[in-house]
Structures are given as structure tokens and as C-alpha cells.
Amino acid sequence: MAAIGRTRWIIPEGFIPGRSMVNADRPLLSHEAFCVLNAGDAEAHITVTLFFTDREPVGPYRMTVGARRTHHFRFNELEEPEKVPLDTDYASVIESNVPIVVQHTRLDSRAADIALLSTMAWPAD
Amino acid sequence: MAAIGRTRWIIPEGFIPGRSMVNADRPLLSHEAFCVLNAGDAEAHITVTLFFTDREPVGPYRMTVGARRTHHFRFNELEEPEKVPLDTDYASVIESNVPIVVQHTRLDSRAADIALLSTMAWPAD
Amino acid sequence: MAAIGRTRWIIPEGFIPGRSMVNADRPLLSHEAFCVLNAGDAEAHITVTLFFTDREPVGPYRMTVGARRTHHFRFNELEEPEKVPLDTDYASVIESNVPIVVQHTRLDSRAADIALLSTMAWPAD
Amino acid sequence: MAAIGRTRWIIPEGFIPGRSMVNADRPLLSHEAFCVLNAGDAEAHITVTLFFTDREPVGPYRMTVGARRTHHFRFNELEEPEKVPLDTDYASVIESNVPIVVQHTRLDSRAADIALLSTMAWPAD
Question: Do residues B108 and C120 lie in contact, with contact meaning Cβ atoms separated by under 8 Å?
Fold first, then answer.
């Protein structure tokens, strides 16, 4: 399949809840994800830059999505150049060398039950 | 009414929760749907291709939406060429021979209550 | 302010839950809404057409949004030409004589708590 | 990084729930936010105009987002020219002198648990 999408996507609303329901396993742990589809036949080399309220941007975070693959990355699990702080407002710019499509999702399990939000990221190129 | 929409739509964030609340009937069963509107006067012949994290794409899944009809398809209920695995990240590309509009929705009832997310799919043509 | 938006908007995912939590007042009653902003200086004359899975479209429903006004219409409260059936999949096409912007929201209170979804409608003109 | 986005964004669906769960701290208080990313190298001067169902628009509300910063503004916390009424339908137009990206989020904790919705705002320029 030919490559689909754009090479730069924006998510203004970043926030990883710092708590989760009791005994949450990984699926029900509070988390925030950017889901990437790379429908094309070339590997996607992706960089993420994080923006904050009161300090300079952090990045690039680097990851790869193989040809004809999807990968749902959790911001919680990013490690380099630094972990994403919890309970903190941030925003992200996601760039790729080939066209991709990006969707944003949060699962919030701070209360006894879970809440979900999702939106397509905004394509900027 | 003239046909409305585009012929290729993308949903990067696929995930069907593998559990549901106790005694869930079909409406409250955890599920994920792509909702198609075919506003035009010709039948829409639709193919869906699913992408995964660690294997080649699966498809096409084939379905039809009549002229001037909507159909809300549950990924859970797709059967051919194979069922969609639960608790597994995937993404989808939805293609049609005529313009359609596609919206993505998930109902998650793994906890005692339900959570919902929805977003318009991303039009790629 | 000059008129903002488009004159035709699409919401493929319509579904009004047929039940609500015990003692729900109007705000917490299960409902589905299309929220219209008419930022311009001319009254917006709006028509809504509903599409179903297994019968011909129903409409037009007619409503007006004054100049420089917003109105959040509940599908549940539409009356003419007929009420919108509960627990039934539908889709909607919303047309206006002047540019408007439309957002879709559902509140589902079938369980003990509430769930929300929202997305911008899809502009088709 | 070069400026990213558009200079006018629309959110038709505004509604701040007037109640919250018992003992809610600020993060779990019912609220509605517009999240701004200003990825560029110039400060963003932003004005917000609110639209209502039955009276003239209110504004401008004024705020600033520094270069290379994100700010998640709560409508609940706007003060000038007047506070945003609770339990009241409204819509917003968000304008900036430089390109920005805007996402809309609501957290509703009127019930014992929380519900979330989010969507990208609609870019109007």
C-alpha cells in the first residue's frame, strides 16, 4: 500500500494522570498514547518534541515504526532524553520522514472507574 | 442526495477490550466500531485492511452499505478473513468505491461502568 | 464577526441510549447533541436529515440559530417530522444557508456513572 | 521551530458542569479547557470570544502563550471581562496573532466517577 498521511502531527493536550485505580494492570493504568499507522512500504523514523508551560521543549524522542505496521506509543513509557513528568501539562509535535497518521488517546483511571478520550492529532504540514 | 465524503479513511487507534462488565448485553459489551454514512445514491462497496504491531496487514474485510444508509460496523464482529484479536493494538484503513464518511467509537466496559471515546476518522484521499 | 465555518456537516455515529441513571435530571439524562456556532451576522436556517440502517432518510428537521449565537440541539428533543428512535443507529447531515461550525457530543448514563464522547463533525462542502 | 497551526480556532460545544464529585481537588474538579500549543519563536497574543444561546457575545478574554510553550487554559478560571457561567451552553472562538494549535477537553465529575471528552478544535482561517 502507498504511504498514507502527513509528516507532522500536533497534540496540544498532554497530561498523564499520576494515579490509577487500585490493582490496575498495564491496560488499566492511567496512560496517554499517540497511535501511529505507517501504511507504507518504508520504515518510519519518528521524532517527538514535547512542549511545556514553563520551560524549553524537550526532545527529540526517537522511535521507529516498521513498514505496514501500527505502533501505539505510551508517553508514560518514553525514557530518553528524559521521562515525561506526571500530572503536568504538556503538548507534543510528532514528525516522521515518511507519511503517517496519528491519533491521541488517554485512559484515566484515577477514580474507581475509567474515563477515555481520543481525537485525531492535527496534521501540520 | 449527492455522495458525500471521501473514499479512504484511517483509524490508527484500534483496541478491543477483552473483558466487559458483568451481565453486559450487546449494547454494553466492550466494543469498537467504525460508523459509515453513505449519503449517495449508489451502493458503497467497502474494504477494510487491518494493521498490527508485529505482523503483516490482514484483509480485505468486505462489506456493503446501501444507498442512503448508515451502518455502524463493530470490529468485534468481523469474521472473514479472520476475527480481530482482543486486547491487541491494531489500526485500520477503510476504502470505498464511492464517497463515504467514517467515525470511530469505542465503548469500554471493563470496569464497573462504561467509558466512551470517539473521533472522526482521518480522510486520506 | 464575519461568518465562520462551512454549510454542510456530517455525523456518522448517531445513537441515543434508551436508558439513563436513576433519578437523572435533564443534564444527566442520556442524550446526543449537535452543537452549532453561528458566529456571523445573519440568522442560520438549518436543516437536518437523518439516515438509518434499514430505511430511507427522514427529514428535513428545521431549526434556526440567531446571528452571533450558539445552540446545542439534542437529537432526543427533535419532534418534526418524527421523533428520533432510541437505541437505534443513525447518522446525520446538517445543512445551513450560512457558514456554521458543528460539534457532536453524547452523554451516556445507562450505567451508574456517565460517559462522554465528542468530536468535531466533518465538514463536507 | 517554525510556527505551526492556524490563527483562528472554533469550539462549538462549551459547557462547564456546575457540580463535582465530593472532595475533588483541582485536577478532578469538573472543568473545561482549551489547550494551546505555540510551537513558534514569537509570543502568542490570544483573544477568546464566547457565544451564548440568548445574549450577545462576550469578550475579548486576553491571554498570552510564550514562544515554544503550551498552556492549557480552563474556561472556569477566566475572569475578565466576566466569569463563564456554569451549567450554561456556550461556544468559543480563539484567535491568535501567530499560528497555534488548539484542542478542547472537558472533565465531568458530577457523578461519583469522571468522564472525559476531547476533540481538536476546528481551524477556521
Answer: no
